[in-house]
Amino acid sequence: MKAICASMSDDGVFPKMEHYCCMIDLLARSGYFKMADDLLHTMDVLPDLHALMSVLTCSSMHGNIDFGKRCFEGIVRLNPNDASGYVHISKMLSNNIMQDLTLFGE
Q1: pLDDT band for position 19 (50/70/90)?
Q2: So what's the pLDDT on residue 104?
Q3: What single DSSP character describes residue 82?
Q4: 68: Cα separation from own chain's centroid
Q5: Most buried residue among 12, 41, 70, 106 by CB atoms closer than 10 A?
Q6: Is residue 74 within 8 Å of residue 46, measured between CB atoms?
Q7: Residues 28 and 54 sit within 8 Å (Cβ to Cβ)
């Protein structure tokens, strides 16, 4: 990912939050959470609410509870009054509970 950002800089285009958000979203949607996490922590700007919400949504889609929880914590730090983060995390956790109950035949 750093190579892509470096090549942009070589061409006189300096990555902005929008570029990082697109890359993070693509990685997370594809299930590459480690790479998405690395990019979140190494980009030149702090992650914003949109980047974290995107990853939280993808975490829910892929059932990656641990990564989703970390993104949710970042969302709450940025904007504790934003209800959408709470909705996504509750949906993700309830889906996980339902899957666990199904495994045990309940």
Answers
A1: confident
A2: 61
A3: -
A4: 7
A5: 70
A6: no
A7: yes
